[in-house]
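Hi support team,

I'm filing this because I wasn't sure whether my run with flavin-adenine dinucleotide finished correctly. The job status page said complete, but I'd like someone to confirm that the output block is well-formed before I use it downstream. Pasting the exact inputs I used:
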Amino acid sequence: MDCWREAEGKRVHDPFYYCYSRGDSSCKAAKTAATAAAGEGEMFVRVEGPLIVGAGPSGLAVAACLKEKGVPSVVLERSDCIASLWQHKTYDRLRLHLPKQFCELPHMPFPPSFPTYPTKQQFLAYLEAYVRHFDINPVFNQAVDSAEYDHKLGLWRVRTTAQKGVQGKEKEAAPVEYVCRWLVVATGENAEIVIPDIEGMEEFNGPVVHTSAYRRGDAFRGKKVLVVGCGNSGMEICLDLCNYDAHPTLVVRDAVHVLPREMLGSSTFGLSMWLMKWLPVRTADRLLLLLSRLTLGDTARFGLERPQLGPLELKVLSGKTPVLDVGTLAKIKSGDVKVRPAIKRLIGHGAQFINERTENFDAIVLATGYKSNVPSWLKDGEHFSEKTGMPRRPFPYGWKGEHGLYAVGFTQRGILGASMDAKRIAHDIEQHWNARDHVKQPAIFSRLPAMP
Ligand SMILES: Cc1cc2nc3c(=O)[nH]c(=O)nc-3n(C[C@H](O)[C@H](O)[C@H](O)COP(=O)(O)OP(=O)(O)OC[C@H]3O[C@@H](n4cnc5c(N)ncnc54)[C@H](O)[C@@H]3O)c2cc1C
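And here is everything the job wrote out:
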């Protein structure tokens, strides 16, 4: 409890305490205080409702569902905007991979005028409209660097490092400690980029960029580009490079399921969901693979071997998502995109592959994905796996942990999975929120400055 005494001692110097003591406990005032923290010592603030970490689609969905139930929440975001993954880390030609009806957030459909696969700009416009509609006001430039449940107090203590400035130019500032009863982890499956350890990487002479820094192919015009990784992003970036007259080579290390984005006039995703409803997963897989073969041909002939398990069974068992082809396969067939096996090592002007073949390249794009950052800041050890940063319990049970801890958007089922989590979490918190007056709280909690 020493820290609480320390907190008490600091109150006289504390801008939060100052704003609280004036009776001004609005979210806006707390935001102002968070900004003020940049120049002051550490500060403490009480969050009356749930604290949501991350203002991506998942965090926004939970905030909106809570709002619908009359439960106020606070959203903290490390970046300077909502949906920072979509705003700052995606390529220009990106569209939703799945039809819009599978990517809606709760309580607000996409406008009917939007196409089946909205562009990234349309998706962002939808999210902006969403936060306006539900009056969600995240506190930006607040990176959570630790969160721990205090068993003595029965409360979560969440520490942030306030940041100033635009992405990439952040300046570290004084930390703020938020104290709350419910903590919602919404930092996403894609919080940090994954850079593989490839032998000889430092020897390669040309630029090496992760897909998070790739916008469009104009900088690669006329160049030989090695694209490492054949998920949806790697495949689509190859197509983009072709459109900018670059010469991409795709590294395909493992077996992969490539399916057409549409089959029999409907989306492959929608068709898969429908088949899964009525048929055993293996039968559904056989049908999907048959239809795929009729549309795309034998992908193994072009260097894209299929895994032993079918696409749906593989998804259920390992979370690995099939690639939905948007035109890259035709470029592979025509030879505009070359396919190579795993890299053995990189050399000054190129790469040597495991089949001993060596080729020259001007640049490398790493389409090697992302990972969760939860283990780096959540001192929990129970609910989230230290290794993967994902909930230990499989879908659909991973949304709820112990002591008021929740996880949204860790289902490997995109925005559809996040929306399902968000509704469950809001419903659960609502019960506790309505019963909160009967729960005894430590005196210090009610004495801390409050938000919202
Ligand atoms: C290229 C690409 C295309 C995709 N296309 C689709 C699609 O078509 N359909 C679909 O359903 N899904 C798609 N996805 C998956 C997509 O990531 C998710 O569906 C969606 O963005 C997940 O939202 P989220 O809020 O869970 O995570 P994110 O969008 O990653 O948001 C998490 C937020 O948390 C913030 N954050 C992280 N750590 C901290 C911290 N310590 N403190 C404070 N804030 C923090 C981040 O800055 C970020 O803003 C795609 C993903 C990628 C990369």
